[in-house]
Write a structure and sequence with these properties.
Elements lengths: L1 E7 L8 H9 L5 E2 L2 E2 L3 H14 L2 E4 L8 H10 L6 E4 L3 E7 L5 E7 L3 H14 L3 E8 L12 E3 L8 H18 L1
Parallel strand pairs: 1-4, 1-8, 4-5, 8-9
Antiparallel strand pairs: 2-3, 6-7
Amino acid sequence: MTQKVLFLDFDGVINTDRMAIDALTKEGEWRDEFGLKFDPESILNLRHIIEETQARIVAITSWKQYGLDYLQEIWQGRQMPGEISDITPDYRTDFEMDAHHQPKCVQAPLMSKGEGIEEWILQEQLQGRETQYAILDDIQSFTLDQQPHFVQICAHCGITSKDADRAIQILSQNIRQHE
């Protein structure tokens, strides 16, 4: 079975520069127990992607340092669309031969978000799951093979309706290609 996945960054995507500026210059409820709130327009467009595709969200954000449980708590506490089902790994598991010529498991640090996505997809393939995906990020750090799946987000504006339509198109194209 093929799963649809939205690899999602936070800063510059749903946590926008526009929102930070508004929080500094205007009065209002800009913060909650988790900190600066996410940009409402970006969330509306994210909701559209999730409703149209039923994609799972996998976090590729630096926020994943706080752990999956914390990200899920934020998501639920803020009543965000969909759910964060996972985070990408920071390490790749490799095997090398020890002094006795026996394979041993070692962890090698991943250098980019693109490598984290590759490792995540590989682990899913080893579990027998095929992945069709789109990537939403404000910074390009993805492999050549991932470029057709990448939607570059403006860090000031966040996810626009055009970005949402592009992500939906990417996920839809992938589905047709694999059917």
